[in-house]
Write a structure and sequence with these properties.
By secondary structure, the chain is an alpha/beta fold. It has one domain: Alpha-Beta Barrel (TIM Barrel). The chain contains eleven helices and eight strands. Strands 1-2-3-4-5-6-7-8 form an eight-stranded parallel sheet.
Length: 281
């Protein structure tokens, strides 16, 4: 049995054939799916799907790149969902500096980010600083909520490693996080494992240019990671460029087994045990 620990089943990509998608997952050996919220409305949809399908559990939270879009009162809305019996964690939350407001402004103006920064360093710094501060506030609030409800956290981190860990370290021993879609170095993986957290891997592990991810796969203990799809994104080879879906968790696990010199059955058993413990399934 496999568990897809990170899927976005509430997205429009699955609106027309979700029952078939779940049936295909079961046929591939993916018996449970964790549907991840990215905002209040998305989290409510994830919970509704968990109520509709026995095999689905929900994670509720606010994605860091959505902090400027979410309405006031989102935290209380997430709090109201957190006690639902099929809510398995808080998230996805975290920090993401990959596309800062100054870069978006430059793109809209048709100039490079460097030109925009040169033109007005102060404005760029203020915009980007406010965005980072809003992400940090939302991340901290969700970590507090997770600790309050005794839940773990699904963490999104992109180009914000130091700030993410600086915030998370204050919660050591109070909760655990999984760094989903992990793409950092083996040393960084060991850093978060030492703090009691986990990583999870997507279809990126099958990509030709993903040697670094495979290095991490080979380096860490068998109980330190989980498998996921992040569907509808990041479809593994041979489906790259197409819609990803939970059934593809099997392809992720097969590649991990190949890299580690293990059997698929061993990887499935280990990642399922880890997921069941982390999400309290």
């Amino acid at each position: 049995m496999l568990i897809d620990t990170h899927a976005h089943l509430d997205y429009p990509d699955f609106q027309n054939d979700l029952e078939e998608v779940i049936a295909a997952a079961h046929k591939a050996g993916v018996q449970r799916i964790i549907s991840i919220g990215t905002g209040l409305k998305s989290s409510r949809r994830a919970v509704a799907l968990a109520e509709r399908f026995d095999c689905v559990h929900a994670v509720v939270g606010l994605h860091p790149t959505h902090v400027d879009e979410e309405s006031e009162g989102w935290l209380e809305g997430i709090r109201a969902l957190a006690s639902h019996p099929k809510v398995a964690a808080i998230g996805e939350t975290g920090m993401d500096y990959h596309h800062l407001p100054s870069e978006k402004l430059a793109s809209a103006a048709g100039i490079s980010a460097l030109q925009a920064e040169t033109a007005d360093d102060t404005q760029a710094a203020i915009m980007d600083g406010a965005y980072k501060a809003a992400q940090a506030e939302a991340f901290t609030a969700q970590l507090d909520l997770a600790a309050e409800f005794g839940l773990n956290v699904v963490i999104h981190q992109r180009d914000a490693w130091d700030d993410t860990l600086d915030i998370l370290k204050d919660y050591t021993g109070r909760l655990r996080g999984v760094f989903h879609c992990f793409g950092n170095t083996p040393d960084q993986a060991r850093e978060i494992l030492a703090l009691g957290h986990l990583v999870s891997f997507t279809g990126i592990v099958t990509f030709k240019n993903a040697a670094l991810v495979r290095d991490v796969v080979a380096a860490i203990p068998p109980d330190a990671f989980m498998v996921e799809t992040d569907c509808p994104y990041l479809a593994p080879v041979p489906h790259r460029g197409k819609r990803c879906e939970p059934a593809h968790t099997r392809l992720v696990a097969e590649k991990i087994a190949e890299v580690r010199g293990a059997t698929l059955e061993a990887i499935a058993a280990a990642t399922t045990r880890t997921a069941e413990a982390f999400f309290r399934l």
